[in-house]
Design goal:
Elements: H1 2-33, E1 46-56, E2 59-68, E3 81-85, E4 91-96, E5 98-100, E6 122-125, E7 156-164, E8 177-182, E9 188-190, E10 194-196, E11 200-202, E12 209-211, E13 214-222, H2 224-227, E14 233-239, E15 242-246, E16 265-266, H3 273-277, E17 291-292, E18 300-309, E19 313-322, E20 329-330, E21 333-337, E22 344-348, E23 350-355, E24 364-369, E25 376-377, E26 385-393, E27 410-413, E28 416-417, H4 440-468, E29 476-477
Bound molecules: 2-acetamido-2-deoxy-beta-D-glucopyranose (9 copies).
């Protein structure tokens, strides 16, 4: 009786393990093929809500709010650009908190001239510092939207729009069509506007509720495949138990020999570096990115170092390095997937939140900088890196240093999937294990050995440290002694 029960539970747990495995395989295979959605944030989207606040003699006034419901992808500077097609001959009389980029042909209007007469208006946010009488709540951030997990207070953007030559009741109004969203580049696809239950607004003292005349929603989703960007980051690996540093794959983000505009790079030893990085330009021109010459040509490298082994814990050091001379990343974030994240014990100097894209699978962590301390990743150079250490508690059932288990399964930086080295190149445990049995003879000799090694290591660190900060890529052997500690 008892044994049959335990057998059936073990079958069930095996089945659920299988299910998890299948989900994982499906998600990772879709990731490599088309990546129609983000496997680590399957629900992620940007939702726009149009609330018609009042009817006017020839149309309506609406407040449009964009919510970034993506856990870690944000819209960086120069911000979002929103477009749509009017269903009829609508015009925009005025806008608050945003503007259209072109007015279009308003020649048939006399006296009062609309803000925009185009059939397909293109709207951008206003810049910070806009006069207060042209602002509304959540506007005027230059189109920058932070991610939902990192800063929900700055994950929304609003503007007010006054529409003319439109329907004036909820029966005659026609919702706009063909929404497009650039964030700031391509990648987003927007669905059709759907009329939903009117939004209810509660006054700040919560004593009165008002509601919109009519509300419609538009949902846009991101796909890295649609964005068709070359990768923007790569991963390198090392460990205390093997001296090999596995660098980012060659040409991970482009190739040096192909000197197309994406392949241009800069040698850090270039004389007059500063004048090359920021040549004198006219105000307002945007310079193309300029990365340091490396084998991988990625603007960002994430290095994962398996640093220490304790009886019940193990420690990882993460270093994010910026190789882009022309970009400071403010409010960066990274996402890492590793099975031991369900037993994370401590994380130093980064913020942490567990993401659970699938029920029961707690292996994904979002990490980002601490405000005013390291949330700003400076341009390439001596300050262009941020670091953290993570302490994991070993789950004896799964923990292992073998077969590259200690390395991450997946890394994202600012929502972009980073290129990993091929698994067969991972540093592996020397055969015979890294903690050999200690004989009596060795235990007498060991202290002597240790002292001499320590001296060696100190002199070694002094000579090697400048290198490791670096442009070391490839399987370079630079740490002959560290493996012994
Ligand atoms: C958009 O994201 C929100 C928050 O994750 C989610 O509740 C909603 O269902 C999503 N909408 C769509 C259409 O996927
Ligand atoms: C339009 O307004 C009427 C009442 O004025 C309401 O009954 C109806 O549900 C509304 N329709 C929509 C689509 O909001
Ligand atoms: C615009 O949207 C309509 C439906 O709302 C669709 O039939 C049409 O193909 C779209 N046009 C473009 C250019 O996407
Ligand atoms: C419409 O969007 C708002 C804001 O994102 C959301 O709260 C609401 O649930 C959405 N309505 C529907 C029916 O999806
Ligand atoms: C240059 O680019 C072409 C096509 O993108 C590719 O086939 C070729 O291998 C590249 N050359 C080098 C040296 O990487
Ligand atoms: C990055 O930030 C530093 C310090 O704020 C500033 O001096 C530098 O010009 C910025 N670089 C770029 C490319 O914006
Ligand atoms: C995932 O694991 C971390 C670390 O043990 C824990 O803090 C977090 O609450 C877990 N999340 C879920 C959804 O179980
Ligand atoms: C690790 O986390 C899992 C799931 O939260 C839990 O079942 C297990 O006991 C934890 N292991 C250790 C060693 O804390
Ligand atoms: C370290 O790992 C590499 C694979 O990346 C392997 O070739 C090498 O033999 C390993 N070193 C030792 C001492 O096992």
């Amino acid at each position: 009786m008892d044994s049959s029960v335990s057998r059936s539970t073990s079958v069930v747990s095996n089945l659920s393990f299988l299910a998890v495995l299948i989900v994982f395989l499906i998600s990772s295979s879709s990731l490599t093929s088309t990546e129609a959605y983000d496997a680590l944030d399957p629900e992620g989207n940007i939702t726009m809500k149009w609330d018609v606040m009042s009817w006017t003699p020839d149309g309506y006034v609406a407040v449009v709010t964009m919510f970034n419901f993506q856990k870690y992808r944000h819209i960086p500077s120069p911000g979002w650009t929103l477009g749509w097609k009017w269903a009829k001959k609508e015009v925009i009389w005025s806008m608050v908190g945003a503007q259209t980029t072109e007015q279009g042909d308003c020649s048939k209007y006399k006296g009062n001239i609309p803000h925009c007469c185009k059939k397909d208006p293109t709207v951008v946010d206003l810049l910070p510092g806009t006069p207060y009488n042209q602002q509304i709540a959540n506007c005027c951030k230059g189109g920058v939207l932070n991610s939902w997990v990192q800063d929900p207070g700055n994950a929304a953007s609003s503007f007010q729009i006054s529409v003319g030559a439109a329907g004036t009741t909820n029966k005659t109004v026609r919702v706009p069509r063909n929404f497009t969203l650039m964030g700031p580049g391509p990648g987003y696809t927007c669905g059709p506007a759907k009329v939903v239950r009117p939004t209810k607004f509660v006054t700040t003292d919560t004593r009165r509720t008002t509601q919109a005349m009519m509300t419609w929603n538009i949902t846009c989703t991101y796909s890295q495949f649609l964005a068709q960007r070359t990768p923007t980051c790569c991963v390198s690996l090392s460990s205390f138990y093997n001296e090999t540093i596995v660098g980012c794959p060659t040409c991970a983000c482009g190739c040096q020999n192909n000197r197309t505009e994406s392949g241009a790079c800069l040698d850090p030893d270039t004389p007059h570096l500063a004048s090359v990085v920021s040549p004198p330009t006219k105000k307002g021109t945007i310079l193309p990115p300029l990365v340091q010459c490396t084998r991988h040509l990625c603007p960002i490298r994430v290095h994962w170092h398996v640093k220490q082994n304790y009886k019940e814990y193990w420690r990882v050091k993460i270093t994010i390095t910026n190789f882009n001379y022309r970009l400071n990343y403010s409010q960066w974030n990274m996402v890492a997937q590793h099975p031991n994240f369900d037993n994370i014990t401590q994380i130093f100097s980064f913020n942490y939140k567990s993401l659970t894209p699938y029920a029961g699978l707690n292996d994904t962590a979002m990490l980002w900088g601490v405000k005013f301390y390291n949330d700003f990743l400076s341009e390439a150079g001596p300050l262009g890196n941020v670091q953290s250490e993570i302490l994991f508690r070993k789950d004896q059932a799964t923990f292992s240093f073998e077969k590259g288990w200690a390395f991450p399964r997946r890394i994202y930086f600012n929502g972009d999937n980073c290129v990993m080295p091929p698994p067969d190149t991972y540093p592996f445990l020397p055969s015979g294990g890294f903690r050999p049995e200690v004989s009596v003879f060795a235990s007498v000799l060991l202290p002597v050995l240790l002292v001499s090694l320590l001296l060696l290591r100190v002199s070694f660190i002094l000579t090697v440290l400048p290198l490791t900060n670096d442009s070391v890529s490839g399987s370079v052997r630079v740490r002959p002694w560290l493996g012994l500690f």
